[in-house]
Amino acid sequence: MTPGLDHRTTSSSTVAAVSRRVVATHLPIPLVLGFGNVLLADDGAGVHLMAALRAELATSAYAVECVDGGTLSFSLLPYLEATDSLLVVDAANLQLSAGAVQLFEGVDMDELLKSSRRRSVHEVGLIDLLDMARVQGSLPARRALLCIQPGVIDWGEMLSPPVSAALPEAKRLALELLCRWRSE
């Protein structure tokens, strides 16, 4: 993570900072994008998970960029252009019990996003963002979507008990994936 960089907005200085990180390390840094609205209870699960990953990885020797994507914006495209490994974390209606966690990698992620049934209010924006990266030839080769089944989508800043209880398992899955990508 770039110290002092506000990850909720993107400007020319953000693009420059992203470019400097790639040049400085000579390798693209894996990107974790957390989506959701933290004012709508479980809809903010992706942002809460991203924050937990950011805290866990802060002392790690393995560089990972953790970005609060909020409710998504095309201003996130420079982050996708600067990585070859993308992990998106979000609340999604998987038609499972609240707190269920599922990981979709590569083709499975693409197929999930191509299906006609929308599982997340952020999905259409994510599809458009990935399509923009694809058109520009910068779609990350390694990509995954880690979903948590919400229980409550209503005004409130707290996660429901089942979703809150699912965060450690979701974090474990995310860290395992990032470690596997690191070793590939």
Polypeptide structure, described:
By secondary structure, the protein is an alpha/beta fold. The protein has a single domain (12-183), classed as HybD-like (Rossmann fold, 3-Layer(aba) Sandwich). The chain contains six helices and five strands. It has helices at 12-25, 45-57, 77-81, 107-114, 123-135, 161-183, and strands spanning 31-35, 65-70, 85-91, 101-105, 142-148. The protein has a five-stranded mixed β-sheet. Strand 1 (31-35), helix 2 (45-57) and strand 2 form a beta-alpha-beta unit. The radius of gyration is 15 Å and the shape is globular. The protein starts with 11 loop residues before the first helix and ends with a helix.
Defining key terms:
single chain; about 180 residues; alpha/beta; Rossmann fold; five-stranded mixed β-sheet; 6 helices; about 40% helix; about 15% strand; globular; disordered N terminus
Helices, strands, pairings?
Layout: H1 12-25, E1 31-35, H2 45-57, E2 65-70, H3 77-81, E3 85-91, E4 101-105, H4 107-114, H5 123-135, E5 142-148, H6 161-183
Parallel strand pairs: 1-2, 1-3, 3-5
Antiparallel strand pairs: 4-5
Helix pairs in contact: 2-6
Question: Fraction of residues in helices?
Answer: 40-55%
Mean pLDDT: 84
Return the CATH class. Alpha Beta
Order of strands, main sheet, comes to 2-1-3-5-4
The fold-level CATH name is Rossmann fold
In CATH, the homologous superfamily goes by the name HybD-like
**What Rg do the Cα atoms give?**
15 Å
